[in-house]
Structures are given as structure tokens and as C-alpha cells.
Write a structure and sequence with these properties.
Layout lengths: L2 E6 L9 H17 L4 E5 L11 H12 L5 H5 L29 E10 L4 E5 L6 E4 L11 E9 L2 E6 L7 E4 L2 H5 L6 E11 L2 H14 L1 E4 L7 H5 L3 H8 L3 H4 L12 E4 L11 H12 L4
Parallel strand pairs: 1-2, 1-10, 2-8, 9-10, 9-11
Antiparallel strand pairs: 3-4, 3-6, 4-5, 6-7
Helix pairs in contact: 1-2, 1-9
InterPro entries: Alpha/beta_knot_MTases, NA-bd_OB-fold, Put_MeTrfase-C9orf114-like, tRNA_m1G_MTases_N
Protein name: DUF171 family protein
């Protein structure tokens, strides 16, 4: 089961300064981590970007937030986008790949600090010192590259380099249609206040599908929800969701980039605006419940 979270490049458009934009993105990364998302995808919304905090800024801050603390200095150095990286909340991501007590080891990210002779490399993976490891056959690595290290024991150190995807939250940049078109997209959900209201009964029918197939959930930006980003009439979404005046007035359901449903997870919101980072928590929490 794969969980993907999609946010627009304009997600920080209302931030007054870089500090506030960084703080906001930190909570987006926190929400994705808490609910065990595999991918956090930044899709383009050029018309909604303010210029200061564009998709490059958003992706850089999110990638930094998702980098294990022991690798950050070596992987990123000093960058203008990361001026306020110190205020990012720690993700404290839990391992999802086994534990030392079972003998299967636990996987963690490392960075290659030196490529030596005879197929060996030195890797910084958060232990006291970089460790020397054999490179698996048919696997090529370069200095500065991030790799997956499986740790079996810390004292004495027993570990090996494995040709596996990097553990932890993956940050990607791609367009909305491509993200929705993945083979492992699962249930494709558009989070919007104009969508179908999430009820206990509706959640019960969704839970089984999500557990079996995974899910991809897309969010909009401040003052610029998914309908505005996609150029879709709000009334058409209400009609396709089967509620509101639009449904009664015979408005035609909308065409969209490939969502299975539009969903309102805060159907009786008490605030005029639900911020994107708040919507992530409000949406991923119920959709993560088990049958």
C-alpha cells in the first residue's frame, strides 16, 4: 500500500516572510510523516505562485525537512532557501523496515563520503564515524550520493549497503496528471470543501479500498483551492458529489484530471478558511483509520 500526498508549488503564497513560509512547510512535512506517507509530491501551480516562494523554494525546504538530521550539514551546506531551517519541527520518523531485535536489521539513509578501491566505500549513516562497506554487485555509487544502509548491530557495527529505495519520506516534483496516473496511485482523492461530505458511513466504505490499494490525496493552496488551480467550476464539483444547489439544478458533473472522488473532510468547518497544513491533518487522520 502506497500513500502519496500532493501539494501545489503555491502552498506558501500567503506567507508574509521566509520564516513563516518555512514554518508552514515544516508542518506539511510533519503531517505527511505522522500518517506514514511514502511520497510528498509538489505539483506546479505557476499562476498561484507569488515569486518569492515558488516550487523550487517549496521543494528545497521539504527535502531538507525530510533529510535525517545527521546528514543535513553534509547534504545541504548553506543555502539561501534554508535561512530559517532551524525552526522546522523535527520529523522523528519511525523506521518502517524492521528492527535489530528480529535479525532483519533496520534501514537508514547514508551519504557516500569516499569511494575507495576494490569496491568499497565510506558512508556516513549517523553512527559515531563513517563506516567502510562493500558495494553490492551491479550497484554503482558516487561520492556525495545518498544510499540505503541496513544496520544489523551497533556494537560491534554490522551493516551492509543495499540496493533499495531510500527509506523515509520521498519528496518529488511532478505534474498532477502524472502523479494521479501512477500504477500505485490507489484511491485518488481531491480534498476540497466543495466535495462529498465525509461521513462515518462513507469512511467505512473507503477504509477497505484505501487499506487494499493505498491512496493519493491532492490539496490546494491558500485562497486557491483545487477547483481554481484546475480551472473547474465549483458548482460542477458539487453536482458530481451529489449535494448542494448545483445537484438540484441539473448542473453537469465535472471532468477532472483523474480523481476517483472529491472529498470534504471538514464538512462543518467553524473557520472561514482551513489552511493547507490543517487540511492535511484533518484529511489524513480519518483516511488512515483501519476497518
Amino acid at each position: 500500500m502506497t500513500v502519496s500526498v500532493l501539494v501545489p508549488s503555491s502552498i506558501s503564497r500567503e506567507a508574509e516572510d521566509k520564516r513563516e513560509a518555512t514554518r508552514k512547510l515544516g508542518y506539511v512535512a510533519r503531517a505527511a510523516t505522522i500518517f506514514r506517507a511514502d511520497r510528498l509530491v509538489v505539483y506546479p501551480d505557476r499562476d498561484g505562485e507569488t515569486g518569492r516562494f515558488d516550487g523550487g523554494f517549496v521543494s528545497t525546504v521539504l527535502r531538507y525537512a525530510a533529510t535525517p538530521p545527521y546528514l543535513r550539514n553534509e547534504a545541504w551546506g548553506m543555502r539561501d532557501e534554508l535561512e530559517y531551517a532551524g525552526i522546522l519541527p523535527p520529523l522523528r520518523a519511525m523506521s518502517q523496515t524492521g528492527s535489530e531485535s528480529t535479525g532483519s536489521g533496520s534501514s537508514r539513509q547514508g551519504i557516500v563520503t569516499e569511494v575507495g578501491p576494490e569496491g568499497r566505500v565510506r558512508v556516513n549513516c549517523g553512527l559515531q564515524h563513517p563506516i567502510s562497506l562493500n558495494v553490492p554487485p551491479k550497484m554503482a555509487v558516487e561520492e556525495g550520493e545518498r544510499v540505503t544502509v541496513r544496520i544489523y548491530s551497533r556494537r560491534p557495527v554490522r551493516a551492509k549497503l543495499v540496493d533499495d529505495p531510500l527509506p523515509g519520506l520521498s519528496i518529488e516534483q511532478t505534474d498532477l496528471q502524472a502523479a494521479l496516473g501512477r500504477e500505485d496511485a490507489g484511491v485518488r482523492i481531491a480534498a476540497s470543501r466543495f466535495g462529498e461530505h465525509l461521513t462515518v458511513g462513507r469512511l467505512e466504505t473507503l477504509a477497505g479500498r484505501v487499506q487494499r490499494d493505498g491512496m493519493t490525496v491532492a490539496f490546494g493552496a491558500p485562497e486557491r483551492g483545487l477547483p481554481a488551480i484546475l480551472g473547474i467550476e465549483e458548482s460542477a464539483i458539487e453536482a458530481s458529489s451529489g449535494h448542494g444547489d448545483a445537484a438540484d439544478n441539473g448542473v453537469e458533473p465535472t471532468a477532472d484530471p483523474g480523481f476517483d472522488l472529491w472529498l470534504n473532510t471538514v464538512p462543518d468547518q467553524g473557520s472561514e478558511v482551513v489552511r493547507t497544513e490543517e487540511a492535511l491533518f484533518a484529511t489524513l487522520a480519518p483516511l488512515s483509520l483501519r476497518e
